[in-house]
Write a structure and sequence with these properties.
The protein is of the alpha+beta class. 47% of the residues lie in helices and 21% in strands.
Length: 347
């Protein structure tokens, strides 16, 4: 008699085989948009399908071991393997965030700690950029405000590639660093912070912005220390009047290019606001447990003297800070994603 889990496994296998068949259909193959959608669906189901096959094999081996006295000693090991694969498959089938496949825009800002916080914001930006490169994503710097000390007051950049948001959404929040600043002659450890805001990049069709809701100011770009960089009014500041969201861009020499970039960031911020509203309605409990990614929330501590990184949301610590700063963040991304799926499964 088939159990609920047997039915679930059969459904996974059927969905994967149907998606594979659709991918081979000439009508789908010739429609680029549908082919891309079906291709993504096949990719989504590959992991669960493989786990379903492994679970069937382990269950059959377990049944055979229970029947054969020579194999009876393998039963506990096979029971453990079957149960583990069952949990892995259930976790793999937890619905994903609708924004997971999108490109992402990140804003890194210096927090508490003056020049040392600005230097730390620059280090965080480099760590996240290296991580993006390691994962095969493309990076596009949108706006940077360096300070006189060699760090950044803030830097905004886009990470492009299928699934970029699913990787970087765990980086939102306050990142705290403990280290001896280069300017510290007595060797005392200072604590500084930088914040990271993470927003899925929205398409125009997803966020309708009424031009009448925008106040657009143009002005001359300025460099560190306030000196004028160019002689035309190419910098752009856009204020979204209904929400009060303000975006300013000045890195490009053309007013039109700065306006286009500012609109991209504005759309992403408004889209993130709407997602936050929906998430707050749907799963306030879950987000309070895993951490909301709010800028005020301390998510990690980076301790240089101990070569240690601790993620406070999942109580995970690694003494490999030197490697992590080179972009080796996979272990933390995977642990956070697994914990999020586990909590969703529990609900």
């Amino acid at each position: 008699m088939a159990t609920d889990f047997d039915n679930l496994v059969a459904k996974v296998e059927r969905s994967y085989e149907e998606a594979q068949a659709r991918l081979s259909d000439p009508a789908v193959y010739n429609d680029h948009r549908e082919a891309a959608e079906v291709g993504r669906r096949v990719k989504e189901l590959e992991g669960p399908y493989k786990l379903a096959q492994e679970w069937r094999s382990a269950r059959d081996d377990l049944a055979a071991a229970r029947e054969d006295s020579d194999l009876r000693e393998l039963v506990p090991e096979l029971e453990e393997r079957t149960a583990r694969l069952e949990e892995e498959l259930r976790l793999a089938l937890v619905p994903t965030d609708a924004a997971d496949r999108k490109d992402v825009i990140l804003e890194v800002r210096q927090g508490v700690g003056g020049d040392e916080a600005a230097l730390w914001a620059g280090d965080l930006y480099r760590m996240l950029s290296r991580y993006a490169e390691r994962r095969g994503f493309k990076i596009e710097e949108l706006e940077a405000s360096p300070n006189d000390g060699g760090g950044y007051k803030e830097v905004t950049f886009a990470v492009k590639g299928d699934g970029a948001y699913s990787v970087f959404k765990w980086e939102g929040g306050t990142h705290r660093v403990q280290r001896v600043p280069e300017t510290e002659s007595a060797g005392r450890i200072h604590t500084s912070t930088a914040t990271v805001a993470v927003m899925p990049e929205a398409e125009e069709v997803e966020v309708a912005i009424d031009p009448n809701d925008l106040k657009i100011d143009v002005y001359r770009s300025t460099g560190p220390g306030g000196q004028s960089v160019n002689t035309t009014d190419s910098a752009v500041r856009i204020t979204h009047l209904p929400t009060g969201v303000v975006v300013a861009m000045q890195d490009e020499k053309s007013q039109l290019q700065n306006k286009d970039k500012a609109m991209r960031v504005l759309r992403a911020r408004l889209y993130e606001r709407e997602l936050e509203r929906q998430r707050a309605e749907l799963d306030a409990t879950r987000r309070s447990q895993i951490g909301s990614g709010d800028r005020a929330e301390k998510i990690r501590t980076y301790n240089y003297p101990e070569n240690r990184l601790t993620d406070h949301r999942i109580k995970l610590t690694a003494h490999q800070l030197d490697r992590i700063l080179q972009g080796e963040l996979d272990a933390f991304t995977e642990a956070l994603a697994t914990e999020d799926r586990r909590r969703a499964l529990g609900e």
